[in-house]
Amino acid sequence: xxxxxxxxxxxxxxxxxxxxxxxxxxxxxxxxxxxxxxxxxxxxxxxxxxxxxxxxxxxxxxxxxxxxxxxxxxxxxxxxxxxxxxxxxxxxxxxxxxxxxxxxxxxxxxxxxxxxxxxxxxxxxxxxxxxxxxxxxxxxxxxxxxxxxxxxxxxxxxxxxxxxxxxxxxxxxxxxxxxxxxxxxxxxxxxxxxxxxxxxxxxxxxxxxxxxxxxxxxxxxxxxxxxxxxxxxxxxxxxxxxxxxxxxxxxxxxxxxxxxxxxxxxxxxxxxxxxxxxxxxxxxxxxxxxxxxxxxxxxxxxxxxxxxxxxxxxxxxxxxxxxxxxxxxxxxxxxxxxxxxxxxxxxxxxxxxxxxxxxxxxxxxxxxxxxxxxxxxxxxxxxxxxxxxxxxxxxxxxxxxxxxxxxxxxxxxxxxxxxxxxxxxxxxxxxxxxxxxxxxx
Length: 441
Fold this sequence. Notes:
Elements: E1 22-24, E2 27-32, E3 38-40, H1 41-54, E4 58-61, E5 67-72, H2 77-86, H3 94-98, E6 102-104, H4 119-131, E7 144-147, E8 159-165, E9 170-177, E10 183-189, H5 193-209, H6 218-225, H7 228-233, E11 248-249, E12 252-253, H8 254-258, E13 279-283, E14 288-290, H9 291-298, E15 303-306, E16 311-315, H10 321-327, E17 341-343, H11 357-368, E18 378-381, E19 393-400, E20 403-410, E21 418-421, H12 423-439
Parallel strand pairs: 6-7, 7-8, 17-18, 18-19
Antiparallel strand pairs: 1-2, 2-5, 3-15, 4-5, 4-14, 8-9, 9-10, 11-12, 13-16, 15-16, 19-20, 20-21
């Protein structure tokens, strides 16, 4: 048996797209950016067919609300690109595509508790980013967020520039982070979001260039220079926040409204006249599903919303949607313990992975069982880069050369007291650690 090769984490420095496909362990990966995260059922079926015909039949859901087609060979890139272009998912060039990193509230237009239906604002912003060449100098992964609040809020999604609706006409503009941690800048009108974004993007490019070590993300730049240089440049487009920042939203406070940012639970949205819920949530372990699954789900709904929570929202699902989703392995309960697990592609899907990360994570679910109820997240990373979750998790397994290091409250690659464990031993060690944690031993 050939021994696993050493896997050194690699910083690619860019994000894949349709016009900038990324070669990974199972072929080329194409990230399809879907404006406002709204995917018509007909388009979903077509994308599923493309993945089956030209790829390896696997699709990943990204944390930024995108679809990723996997296993595309080089000679199939042209027909796949042409088909996606006909559906309107391909920009004029790779530079205009790369900056279209807009995350939108997935329940926009479906949730009467939201402050605003933000789909139109998100689409306008997406279009401006593509056409404004001055923004094409933004670093890779620079992101934008448009949140309307309500059940599908994005309070815990971290990004570079946030637009959080506070009523039906205005957004709170903040820089670098989650809703709680981003630096507040002011209020802007909904019709000015694209102009504000353009001004902020240009300001970021210019201001970072004046530093000896230019930060690549907004939070880093704000930490160095503060928010005043941005506020000065946007003085004609934004107004000051009310004193104390306690913005009232429909009788509550902004921070109280958004609360903790768990994914929307099944059947939380109001039901229609016939008692049928207007959406159904279908989640997937590690955000991965097959093209056959996507096609099946598209056949039982009118529209699919892509979320940043490894889940899809099926809009106007048919009466047999739940059965079909279950038959295709979808997770339909927010209490399913597999949602506590996150893992990267691992061996086969990534050219630096040497372990089957998905199999290891699922083995932990089988072995640990109810012990997972005591943690928020267990992360299995194929290398120290931690693509699936670079931040701290309750339990983190970092693979190297076919074995794992296991650590508590750690990021991938952090020092660990449990090193060089085989996959089976790592699973057993995690179960033991969780037992100790739950019993206080």
